[in-house]
């Protein structure tokens, strides 16, 4: 890996106790994130902002940059020989590696550009990825991707904000790398990230308050009551509406992030996608000492039943998430 496009990242990975093929895959994903970062940085200069005029399987309008980012990840990784298949929030079905190309044993899942509503307003967005293992040599089906989050071998994201930051875990801590814009090298800037157990900061889209379930309403009401309320402390609220940016803040200084199930559509278990968003972020948060639940259950223990499954998400500082968990058990 010495000729790699990101020598610092390659040196870091050399020291990790993971298979070489996984190291190569992470290098490849980092390269894709670097390319997406460059595209995001150029934006209107390359006429790549705005809607693509198409929709994904979930009926959401696709932005040009959603499609471009998806294409970058597919094209960079398809011929690597490391993968058996890929799946993306932006594609209807799985993408098995074609038979004329070399295959490996890993599955790469991604939300190529999370935070679509922020693309055109120049607010932080990101790529979220998750890597699973499958049986070598067999053609993949959707079932191979339907693994509980605790089976992930790698999870991470690239945040395209004031800096581009690549964050990942291979199951031994969470590490953050800042992209040097001159050398295009990802430099380790934080290792073994730990989320403080207590926090005074919560993140939730308050405009949905009237639809929330009782335990979430109780928790947020108590935060809003401040020093005079049962929590006897003032809370601050943040909501960027890009999960990558909100979770990055939680990893950096603590907090609780919630996109809970609500009563708008009782048949819909939540807004966020289990395989492309909730699982990778939950793996990161748990590796950083936090917790991640859907209300009553740990997200990482959920066995998915479909590729684009949605889930209620409550994650972050341990003591706050535990409290919301208790409120769900109490009802
Ligand atoms: P998308 O997958 O369309 O980019 O959605 C972004 C997600 C997530 O990143 C964020 O936390 C949430 O949707 C924001 O939703 P609201 O606009 O409903 O607040």
Describe this structure in words.
It catalyses: beta-D-fructose 1,6-bisphosphate + H2O = beta-D-fructose 6-phosphate + phosphate. Its EC number is 3.1.3.11. Keywords: Carbohydrate metabolism, Cytoplasm, Hydrolase, Magnesium, Metal-binding. Homotetramer. Belongs to the FBPase class 1 family. By secondary structure, the chain is of the alpha+beta class. It folds into two domains: 182 residues, Fructose-1,6-Bisphosphatase, Chain A, domain 1 (2-Layer Sandwich); 129 residues, D-Maltodextrin-Binding Protein, domain 2 (3-Layer(aba) Sandwich). Helix content is 30%, strand content 24%. It contains eight helices and 17 strands. An eight-stranded mixed sheet has the order 4-3-5-6-7-8-9-10, sandwiched between helices. Strands 12-11-13-17-15 form a five-stranded mixed sheet, sandwiched between helices. The protein has a two-stranded antiparallel ribbon with strand order 1-2. Strand 3 and strand 4 form a beta hairpin. Helix 5 crosses helix 8. The N and C termini lie far apart (54 Å). Bound molecules: 2,5-anhydro-1,6-di-O-phosphono-D-glucitol. 2,5-anhydro-1,6-di-O-phosphono-D-glucitol binds next to helix 6.
Topology diagram in text:
Blueprint: H1 7-14, H2 20-42, E1 51-55, E2 61-63, H3 64-78, E3 83-88, E4 95-96, E5 106-114, E6 125-133, H4 142-145, E7 154-160, E8 164-169, E9 174-180, E10 185-190, E11 201-203, H5 214-224, E12 236-237, H6 243-253, E13 256-259, E14 272-273, H7 274-287, E15 291-293, E16 310-311, E17 313-316, H8 318-330
Parallel strand pairs: 3-5, 11-12, 11-13
Antiparallel strand pairs: 1-2, 3-4, 5-6, 6-7, 7-8, 8-9, 9-10, 13-17, 14-16, 15-17
Helix pairs in contact: 2-3, 5-8, 6-7
Bound molecules: 2,5-anhydro-1,6-di-O-phosphono-D-glucitol.
Subunit structure: Homotetramer.
Main location: cytoplasm
Domain Fructose-1-6-bisphosphatase class I N-terminal: 15-190
